[in-house]
């Protein structure tokens, strides 16, 4: 009798099949988790989880290239489309605007129809948006229509961003064991900044004059087509045949119930506010980097190098942080340390970028900003899943992403309008900004100080006000203890 009670607890209401009976699987259409009617001892991981992660990485990488390819060459884009730098900045800003309404739809779809539907939607929206953008490179397109069509293509691709950005945490939870979840989340999430890195390197290298801009448009289209082929023909299932962990086998909260349940979760909202703010700062720096540096005579190549160093160091930092978090389970501590050191590096970068001929110190500071700032992102997403369990992964991580987009829109719009004209003395000095009259260099000191102030606020909020309760981890630890007890009880019975 005692043995049966423990078995019932371990299975959480599931029945143990006879030795020769097939395993029966039922599907929960609300969030595509499987409720397994099987022996609860032992969980299975599948090699194809790495292919799924690769597909997500390709789509995420391509979407980031589409998003940011114009920012490193703002001057050339201004000349090609006949718009001012503010218009070019909107090519990045529309990604943030479009992702807010699409974000809620993407969260619902991911938790309702599953990973496969979300991945395929992301790939096709990427591809369609890129094809629409290509139309602006052909002679049949009137010059007056080029920029509106380009913006429309950006909006279509921006809608695809939400469908892929929410998938890493869900993929890690459903396909990977608990010892690999953070590193899986890191690899999938960091493909986005690596796409930004590629754009920061390729755009200045390939676009030497404004007429070269279509080359990058075609590169983005080819990469997005590769993502379409991989997802449409390679991703065949949203979930594995059997779960890799107890939490993957459990049923998570439906989307709307999960939203309702999060209302009183103070720890989550502190995380959403701070992490969203960090994403907003990253979006602003990535978009405005060339415009911040060129008045001090730092050219496009150096601005592209700074963006590349920030992201490359961030990718390395994220992997290191992910491994540490997986091994130590100290998600909260890793996140807080990342906030502190990235904020300090951001302050140093802003102060040094006001002066000329400081290439090495400026590059070092932006590198450290990326190394610590990006280390926070995947770890914080896993932390969000921990503190909101059993709310579905796409719901919690989606809200953080939307928070980042909303704060990014506000920060970027305000920054553009509070940037000041250069003083007569600064304007008389050599500059790396184009002097063709279509690009007006500005003094970004006040917007940068605003960003520093916001960074301090986010750091204070996460360090002093955030307290984590690892809910998912507690459930899995309890389940492991019950399995151990079951094994100890079964051993005498078998002998």
From TrEMBL:
InterPro entries per UniProt: FLVCR1-2_SLC49-like, MFS, MFS_dom, MFS_trans_sf
Chain segments annotated as transmembrane: 50-70, 90-110, 117-141, 147-166, 187-207, 213-236, 266-289, 301-325, 337-354, 360-385, 397-419, 449-468
Keyword entries, A-Z: Membrane, Transmembrane, Transmembrane helix
Compartments, as annotated in UniProt: Membrane
Listed name of the protein: Solute carrier family 49 member A3
Keyword Cytoplasm applies: no
Gene: LOC101854091
Species in which this protein is naturally found: Aplysia californica (California sea hare)
Entry keyword annotation includes Transmembrane helix: yes
Span of domain Major facilitator superfamily (MFS) profile: 52-471
Cited PROSITE patterns: MFS
Bilayer disposition of the protein: Multi-pass membrane protein
